[in-house]
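Quick review question:
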C-alpha cells in the first residue's frame, strides 16, 4: 500500500504538468493539440484510480492473515469505490464520443423525478461518506419524458462536482420543482462557487476554473457532457451562485413534454 501511496503522490505531480499541457493546448485550440491533451488527460484519469485499485487489491491478495476483518473490509470498499469512479469516467467518455458524433439519441420514457434523483444518489452514496445530501422534491411534480440513464448521468456528474469542489463537511442540496412547463432540478453546494467570468465557459469541453491550490483534478469534460445531454432533451443547464450568494447552484431545466427542440 505504501508503494501505491508513493505512486499516487508522483501521479499528482504528473497531473499538475498535464493540467498545464491541457491549458496550453486549449489556447492553441488546434485539433491535434486537443486530441493529444485529451489522450494524456484520459490516460491519467484512468490510471489514478487504477493504481489505487491495484494497491488495495494487492494488499488483499497478499494478506497472510495479518489484516483484521475491519482492514480487509476497508480495502475491499476502497476497491469498489475506485472501480465505481472508473466506471463513471468511462461512461462519460462514451457519452462524449456519442455527443461529438451527433449519435446521442435519448430514449424517452415517462420518468418520476424523485426516482431519477434517488438513482443518482445511490450511485454516489459511497462517495458521500456520511456527508449530508438534502433532497427536496416539490409535491405533485409531473412525470417527465426523458432518457433515465442519461439524466441520471447528468445528476451524478453534478453531484460529483458539488462534492469535489466543496468542503467535505458541508451539505449538498438537491431541489426539484416545476415551473412554466419545465421541471427544474438544482444541485447546490457551499463551496467557493464559480466566478461570474467563468460561468458560461465551464460548460465548454476541457474548461477548468483556475484554482490557486491546484485542488481537485479533473478533465473538464463533465459539464460539457451535461450540457450536451440536457440539450438533446430540449432542456437547458445554467449556473448561478448558491444559497445566500455562496457556493454553486447548477440548475437543469427539462421540458415536461420531453420533445427535443
Ligand atoms: P472537471 O470537474 O473534470 O474539471 P467539469 O466539466 O465537471 O470538469 O467542470 C469544469 C470546471 O468547472 C471544473 O474544473 C471546476 O473548475 C468548475 N466547477 C464545476 N462544478 C463546480 C462546483 N460545484 N463548484 C466550483 N467549481 C465547479
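Suggested answer, residue by residue:
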Amino acid at each position: 500500500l505504501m508503494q501505491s501511496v508513493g505512486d499516487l503522490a508522483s501521479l499528482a505531480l504528473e497531473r499538475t504538468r498535464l493540467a498545464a499541457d491541457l491549458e496550453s493546448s486549449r489556447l492553441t485550440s488546434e485539433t491535434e493539440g486537443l486530441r493529444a491533451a485529451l489522450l494524456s488527460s484520459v490516460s491519467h484519469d484512468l490510471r489514478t484510480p487504477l493504481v489505487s485499485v491495484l494497491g488495495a487489491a494487492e494488499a488483499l491478495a497478499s494478506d497472510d492473515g495479518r489484516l483484521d476483518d475491519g482492514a480487509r473490509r476497508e480495502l475491499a470498499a476502497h476497491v469498489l469505490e475506485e472501480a465505481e469512479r472508473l466506471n463513471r469516467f468511462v461512461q462519460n467518455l462514451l457519452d462524449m464520443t456519442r455527443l461529438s458524433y451527433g449519435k446521442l439519441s435519448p430514449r424517452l420514457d415517462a420518468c418520476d423525478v424523485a426516482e431519477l434523483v434517488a438513482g443518482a444518489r445511490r450511485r454516489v452514496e459511497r462517495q458521500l461518506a456520511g456527508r449530508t445530501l438534502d433532497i427536496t422534491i416539490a409535491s405533485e411534480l409531473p412525470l417527465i419524458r426523458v432518457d433515465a440513464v442519461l439524466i441520471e448521468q447528468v445528476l451524478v456528474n453534478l453531484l460529483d462536482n458539488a462534492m469535489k469542489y466543496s468542503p467535505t463537511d458541508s451539505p449538498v442540496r438537491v431541489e426539484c420543482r416545476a415551473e412554466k412547463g419545465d421541471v427544474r432540478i438544482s444541485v447546490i453546494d457551499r463551496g467557493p462557487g464559480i466566478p461570474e467570468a467563468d460561468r458560461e465557459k465551464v460548460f465548454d469541453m476541457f474548461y477548468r476554473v483556475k484554482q490557486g491550490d491546484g485542488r481537485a483534478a479533473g478533465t473538464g469534460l463533465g459539464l460539457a457532457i451535461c450540457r450536451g445531454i440536457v440539450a438533446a432533451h430540449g432542456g437547458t443547464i445554467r449556473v448561478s451562485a448558491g444559497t445566500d450568494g455562496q457556493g454553486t447552484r447548477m440548475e437543469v431545466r427539462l421540458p415536461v413534454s420531453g420533445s427535443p427542440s
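Why it works: The radius of gyration is 19 Å. The first helix runs from residue 2 to 28.
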